[in-house]
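ugh ok fine here u go
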Amino acid sequence: MYAQAKTKIGFCIYIDTVLQGPLPVERDERGNPVVYASMLEAQRIIAADTIERIRQFLENQRDFGDAMTVEEYIEEVDVMSDGSIWDKDDRRFGHDNW
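structure:
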């Protein structure tokens, strides 16, 4: 899809940052982006995080605006054999470059 030596397609949760632009939000134990096998799996992670933020609001641990704002989104990526990914904008994220 985006790179020549891809091994599989996966899904990563991203967030837009001011200084670095779009970035995956999670890393695995090796420092590579966390990749989900399906869009639904990644959506469920975002939903669970949203539920947790709402719970924190209900327990007065977080303000309403912060609890209700969902900044994460999902990108389809090519997953390389070393665990690095290539996204639709031809950016590579691996353990060594983010």
